[in-house]
Amino acid sequence: MPRRLVLLGSDEIALPAFAAARALPDTEVVAVYSQPDRPAGRGQEVRPNPVAAWARAEGLNLLQPEKLDAADAAHLVSLQADLGVVMAYGQLLKDDFLAATRLGFVNFHGSLLPALRGATPVEGALALGLAETGVSMQQVVRKLDAGPIHAAAKTATRAGEGRAALRARLGVIAGELAAQALPPVLSGASVAVPQDETKVTYARRLARTDAPLDFRQPAVVLRQRILAVEGWPGSTFEHRAAVIKVGAASAEDATPSATPGTIVAADRAGVKVACGSGVLVLTQLQRPGGKMLPAAEFLAGYPLAVGEVLASAEMPAFVADRPFPRVPKA
How far apart (Å, rounded) are the C-alpha atoms in residues 68 and 214? Predict the structure, then answer.
């Protein structure tokens, strides 16, 4: 008799793991839970998220509750599922839902737990400049990302790799891990190992207030910050009441005597800004209403003068050794 799986996810990063789970021999996906279709893009057209679109294209039983409740738990019981597989779903699972499958739920998380529990493990790893990260497959418990670990896969981070590229790689790794680690869970052979609570860190949700740069920080910290928040909210600085977006940057070890935020060079090589230590070289920039451009093209239409001092803004930390206070989603 086929093992019966339910899949819970909403983000594209989950698709390789879900495809691998579905491809397991003697296994049937009886439902896919995903977030409801929502307005997206400039036109705010209502669209399915990537997992919901995949489930529809594959003819799978798609369920999109706004918020899981007791009725959803009762329905899951009726599906007689053996295991739930979760990645980037977007809702916390309550006890009645967790108890509704024979083997509970496993979650694929984009870090090497117990490091970087929470909503943004990829961004946290980039912001910290970690040399290594990975994917963990954990048994789901009510406490955030705190369940015991069934399996994990490591990968080295790559120089200059940003959020989108690392997320894509971790998605592929999750798919490989799913193919290897789900069968022992389904057979009851996997023994999950408790996490070391003394090594826990947390990565919070991003907000629009994470965009402004603080040039008082080291240039290497700012380089990693820019990689971590690429796309949304992006990285910005103010210049004469305009908000300029930074698309790419590098860091130099130079030790300028200028005040942090001072533009020390602006040419085809980039806009060089003195930092708390080192120099940040801005190589792609975008002005309001414009396109992201290489520095040379940007400067041709929007001059930045050597000697000008760009304002710094506080940069709230992404990662801490204790949970962040709950804030509304941005």
Answer: 40
pTM to 2 decimal places? 0.95
Write out residues in the chain with pLDDT < 70, as ranges.
327-330
pLDDT at 41: 78
Residues 70 and 214 both lie in one domain: no
Q: How many CB atoms lie within 10 A of CB 38?
A: 13
Q: What is the C-alpha to C-alpha distance for residues 110 and 152, in angstroms, rounded to an integer?
A: 10
Kindly state the greatest CA–CA separation across the chain.
Answer: 73
CATH code of the domain in which 273 resides:
3.10.25.10
Same domain, 236 and 96: no
Place of tokens 């499958």: 101
Cβ atoms of residues 19 and 38 within 8 Å: no
pLDDT in tens, 208-245: 999 999 999 999 999 999 999 999 999 999 999 999 99
Which pLDDT score is estimated for 330? 45
| Rounded CA separation 256/225 (Å) | 21
Query: What Cα–Cα distance (Å) separates residue 183 from each residue in 13, 152, 179, 189, 295?
Result: 21, 15, 7, 9, 51
Q: Is 315 within a domain? A: no
First to last CA, the chain: 45
Provide the token pair at 192. 């999950």
* Pairing relationship of beta strands 242-252 and 149-156 according to DSSP bridges: unpaired
Beta strands 149-156; 202-203: pairing state: unpaired
Phi-psi region of 326 (alpha: psi -120 to 50; beta: other; left: phi over 0): beta
CA 39, chain centre distance (Å): 21
271, β-bridge pairs: 266, 282
- Which CATH number fits the domain that encloses residue 103? 3.40.50.170
Q: How far apart are CA 97 and CA 93, in angstroms?
A: 6
